[in-house]
TrEMBL record, chains A, B, C, D:
This is Malonyl-CoA decarboxylase. Its EC number is 4.1.1.9. GO terms for molecular function: malonyl-CoA decarboxylase activity. It comes from the Bacteria. The lineage of its organism: Bacteria, Pseudomonadati, Pseudomonadota, Alphaproteobacteria, Hyphomicrobiales. InterPro entries: Malonyl_CoA_deC, Malonyl_CoA_deC_C, Malonyl_CoA_deC_C_sf, MCD_N, MCD_N_sf. Keywords: Lyase.
Length: 473, 473, 473, 473
């Protein structure tokens, strides 16, 4: 870590000097800072940018960071309007392609159509901490574009660039444990998006015991800041409730005796990298690492939330037409409306079977308007090739879980030999692979709600573009 | 290093398993391995590639590595023909752009025109050691394209990708010294392209003494393999001969007392990264680092070869028309034809002034057919903003130097405060900035050979595309 | 850290195997575990111990750790009685020395008189984590010897051994900051003995800000466990109250602009190393490190508690004979008996001058029964060559400080050029070096209490044998 | 490594300053430097030494290093004469012991008899690089004491101290491979004492191949300088000739397929640590490490020289009385006198059986004047618990091996389950454990040469005090 910051310091020194040379005396920039920034961008793209690229990019990023929100947005808009492709060159390229559509013409078309801001973003990366600043810039952009749809195109530029820079080939897997530097650990606390970590003592309970593991992906340019991490419990059977996993009075297991690895929380860390998918790679890598370290492990399973269930169930309960729920189901489900039903054993006993059956329908037959499995977490794990293994009523009794899913949790099973086939079934045929007991819960006779089987089904990366911080485990 | 290879091992384990799953039973690939490879590439680009990308890319790269040369080339050609853009999509994008040439249409045009092989190359990078293998693949490609111009377009794809991946923001500067692991040091011996390192003892003399330094850029994915390195001597004055720098019986200097840092050798290491320019950044970074470490250093200078001089002088001597040389010059230069003139003090005394004057003309007025300064090393340093400081007759008496430049060496001076202006002069106005004594050697009156001042002057990165291994110092 | 534990694992593997070989079938040890342990110790000292030393020592330490408290103590007593010197050999050595008291006879006398348990302790160290276990063993011993004075001699053996093993030449200085692994940081929280750290957030405030530093000594064999650490605040002037240092709403200083380094807390960490002095070396090393890093620092000063002051003042107030206090002083000091005087401005105003004068006397003229400066913290810093710089009334208003010193704190100044002379004055002449304003507070005329000037004055290491955890800053 | 030297630099800075303070103006030391040094030693032992120990010890060691050889020796002699125990205190301690020989009196006797120079040596260790300098000092001492027996006693002090400081518990095992820093590797080349390493290329052949390993012990204070290392070849059978192991045209083995680990070279590195035994621990640790890494390994064996064989055989051939050799044996052995017999197949065929039988006798029945097994390498391995496994005629045809052992090499087998018993047999009963085929070669009837079975047999550490650099493998 030290060497990283030393290096950062040195870069700083270089660019400080460079900037002094470049910009001494140009203080009338203040009159129109946006205009000045735009000019600097033009210089950075010019040949002069080659000699002074580091100084120029540092200045631009620094100044942008110090702008107020409105001006930051205004600058991003100028990137869209003032740094698109060179139209004259593009017209010529189109013409040439019309004459001879060979690879050269094609390539020239590709290059001519590349917005100049893409090269600009690449050159911004010359600045010390350039990558990090660009990730922050996109984080801001994602918020801004809600009200400014013209920024969508710039977001696509960022996404394109980041997909290349954050290619899995460049990521490093590191274990997070109680010997990890505190500045990284405090980020784990902050980024945890599924099961809140309330204090350092709670963090310790997730990292220090012999039957706990945590792994994260890092990028060389964001050395102290994880991209995504997964928390794992080593157990002897598949847990049905998060409280069993997290309770601190449990008997700790000798890791070598565990048979089961439970992925109970996955969190994306960088809002600015939304849509760049790491989770699939992370889970598979961790499965392999754990198998290597602990050869007795034979079951790899998640304990996952079901964030879309309660909303779906509400709709089903309200609708007249026969569908997922029978009239009798609806009657029994009325117990859900009673406050504190979760601590009333009678209510729970009544609800357990009907919630389980409804959930089976939700996963196996329920589909959203685009024909997709409704639950984003399910889409993530099924798209990765896992199968739906078990439905757990009252797996999570936190307020949030009760609100989102009436406390339901499920397990997804990662069985290496089936991953490929499961993935094909899900992606290729829109089929949900589930364990036999779950499949049996869905009656073959009762007609399924008409599902709009549309051709273009968005794949496993889709969920992350919705709730990037929370497709967890 | 260990952790790197451990990680590599793990990746290997994952992909081994993945491949077993994917390709069991498909052994009839052997019938048409190229066809099979192409199919794998199609799969890798499909949605299935998302679940099994690591296994697929590993298989493809492995198989390609094991092909014979002819089939390797055949595969690369198929990349050009079978993985260009989707023409239907492209036609549609052109049409849409015709209707409304806004940013969205432009972006779609850019994306539609992107050859599919670019995404393919990005996915290849998922394989363990993917980046390294791709660098080796391009190395092969550079040789192949000499006889197969249709591969030029694929080379452009590689260059585009590498420019992004090897962006200076991702490089790490490391000092190379006598505590550096031997497996890296043996690469320094192998890659040194300017002043041959004959043995480990010679290497030791360049790294271990207190008045020597060496710095290299590394990329996280090629962890034990440098991209470029520079060797530095700390001295009290500007040396005129390489033998003064390398002699092992010199008195070693306490680094803290040095006033001058001499960059006497720069070598690019990765043929597969030809055209991706690192030298400019490396020199400037090292200047800053040294200034930090040794505040007494005030002069930063190279001791550089002049590889184009002998060839140019031959032409000048042969031509009748008055130009760089007067008749008297030519007479005096006849001494060069005498074998062993370099060890004949009389011949040297006679040649010294005329060689110096001719060299001044060579740098200041000589231009190649494209109007550029002739010497590639000069173009590199002048393009970086250095100035031509001194001409040294018999600076290098090795056979190679005598053949290339009649033994001439020069010093380029890096003065931080002038770099920007010098760069502008050279790039913007095609002017060579040189020290006053050199400028005085070129007579104002004698008409310069007509220089074809063409508009588009290729910049400082050009030399590297010629002799990537040798623009050194 | 990983490599350490890996190594530990391997040692474990070796010794596990070794023990299996050695002790299979000897389960009747359980009958008389102490007897069995003693036998193992004899074996360890025999030649057989050379081949199986690691296994034997591991077994012995393991078994000892698992004994109950009484048996642990019984074993330590056996070390005293059963493993003293070989009397026959010793008698012979005394005789030989009588004949010829040359160096050889002397050496033999030294060796013959060495209790065999010293070699035993050295061989215990062959076990994995041997050093650590021995430190824990002595920790237990220090408690036990209160009621078992015969163990005193064993403690001397430990002290002798540890003085050699924990020689300053073997210690490593490491900076503790917010990038330090959490398992080390939690020890900092636990070991802090002067100004309690209540939470990780409070720890962060002491480590993360740019104007804070913390340094610790480590020993290679206790890699994750500090021996002693010091906390430093970088400021622009000498603080008089700990609350000024620790307040979290202060304006943070750019470290480069600080002129003063304040050592506001020093804590010994290992009770088992009591009497082995590190503090002197630590402070001086840190002074040098900080001077190197921050050349503007010119003042190095502590902010220290005065733990003996309240007790001394009580005695003085109670005694009739004229001494430190005049009758008028005593009248004014009555305000101390009023509860909450510290928050009563009038009381504080009245007490301030008299407390200051009394404190000056306490340091300059007060002496304990052995003729030493009374305050242990004062003895530590004065013995290190610091001088008493300033007395701060109500420097610490915590309950503990009010109880120990009526809230008084003082500053000791470390001025490198004077350290040697100050040390000489204190050690050689029992003189307290203090700043002029403090010296002026002590009237020259009023006769000092008769000080028993005994010849043998115990030096600066003495305090640590009293309150090892708390001589701090 | 860097941090080590940084730390060294800082220590340097401290002590530079300290020394300036201490010794300014005392330049008349030059008149009698030894006297001045002695005075500094007295100061270092005084209480003042506690405040300025680092500066004082640094000065003393520096000055000693710069003395000429004669004065260095004179200083060491003064350590013997001027820094022995305090005789008055010692007499008193003897007297007290006479009155009551309890543990306290004993301890006081031990302390009083400790030469003051032992504490002095411990304080020398405060200097930066103190440990290293003390090791060098003893290296010099070992040479000097040949002509100055009065230094023997000082050597005992060093040995006592080093046995404590270089306790196996403080050593770190590190693998040496082709990624090891060059400055350590050049020491491997220099220290290799058994099978000369002629160049970096030869070194590479011993470290880089997949079927080679090398391990070394390091001490934290000599971080870049190994104490002892062992070279290992991974094979499929027990080799009989060193040329088979070292040949570079052999087929390399996949490490995972090896069944046998051959320790073919062990070298002690630090002459100054002679007599401090590491080899036993190193071999056993490496055996464990390799078993962990490569579970298929089942045989751990050396390929070792027999340095005492040729000298012994010469004596046997010359003696008339029947002993190891029959008359017929002597006749056949005459072939040894023929030059180049080793390359004459006929001579070899004739010599093979008789050399083998003689060697069996040499190991099993031959004893030196002290009743010990003659061969120092044999004593080392047998003392470690290995057994003599095989005798290899012409195992090493180098000039040196032909001279020392007529080219004979042997294998010692380390079988973990037998180590304890073998060790007991050798140490306890002076029995050589050998494989059955070797034992059969020694006729039961022919009377053994009378062996002086003396009671006190010196153990396995003895050999190292003879040829510390060469008990190898």
């Amino acid at each position: 870590m030290n060497s990283t910051s030393l290096f950062g310091d040195m870069l700083q020194a270089i660019t400080d000097r460079g900037r002094k040379l470049l910009f001494s005396g140009q203080r009338d920039d203040d009159a129109d800072p946006l205009r000045a920034l735009e000019q600097l961008c033009e210089t950075l793209l010019s040949s002069r940018g080659e000699a002074s690229g580091m100084a120029l990019s540092t200045t631009i990023l620094d100044r942008w960071m110090r702008l107020d929100r409105d001006r930051q947005q205004a600058f991003l808009k100028r990137l869209v309007t003032a740094f698109d492709a060179d139209h004259a060159r593009l017209e010529k390229a189109i013409e040439a392609y019309g004459v001879d559509p060979g690879p050269k013409a094609q390539m020239e078309l590709h290059l001519a159509a590349e917005p100049r801001r893409q090269e600009l973003l690449r050159r911004f990366n010359l600045a010390p901490h350039g990558t990090e600043t660009l990730v922050r810039m996109r984080e801001a952009l994602l918020t801004m574009k809600r009200d400014a749809p013209e920024l969508e195109i710039l977001d696509a530029d960022f996404a394109h660039l980041f997909a290349s820079w954050f290619n899995r080939g460049f990521l490093m897997l590191r274990q997070i444990n109680w010997s990890t530097p505190a500045d990284i650990l405090e980020k784990i606390i902050r980024y945890e998006a599924v099961h809140h970590i309330g204090s350092w003592e709670e963090l310790r309970l997730r990292l220090a015991p012999a039957d706990r593991r945590c792994f994260a992906f890092f990028h060389p340019q964001l050395a102290d800041d994880p991209l995504i991490f997964v928390e794992v419990a080593l157990t002897r059977d598949i847990p049905g409730a998060i409280s069993d996993v997290l309770r601190d009075d449990r008997t700790q297991l000798d890791a070598a005796e565990a048979t089961t690895a439970v992925f109970y929380s996955i969190s994306n860390c960088q809002e600015g990298l939304r849509g760049i998918s790491f989770g699939n790679f992370l889970i598979k890598q961790v499965v392999e690492d754990l198998r290597r370290e602990l050869p007795r492990l034979s079951t790899f399973v998640t304990l996952s939330p079901v964030p879309g269930f309660a909303a779906w169930l509400k709709t089903e309960r309200e609708q007249e037409a026969p569908g997922a729920l029978t009239a009798f189901d609806k009657t029994r489900l009325a117990a859900l409306d009673q406050p504190d039903w979760a601590s009333d054993p009678e209510a729970v006993a009544q609800l357990r079977p009907v919630l389980t059956e409804a959930a089976a329908w939700y996963f196996l037959k329920g589909r959203d308007a685009r024909g997709r499995v409704i639950d984003p977490v399910a889409r993530f794990h099924l798209g990765n090739g896992a199968r739906l293994e078990r439905i757990n009523v009252l797996g999570d009794t936190s307020q949030r879980a009760l609100r989102q899913s009436h406390g339901l949790m499920v397990n997804y099973l990662y069985k290496l030999d089936d991953i490929e086939a499961n993935h094909e079934a899900f992606i290729g045929r829109n089929e949900v692979v589930a364990a036999q007991p779950i499949r049996r819960l869905v009656p073959a006779d009762r007609g399924a709600k008409a599902v709009p089987m549309i051709a273009e089904i968005s794949g496993p990366s889709a969920p992350s573009s919705k709730g990037s911080k929370e497709f967890s485990a």
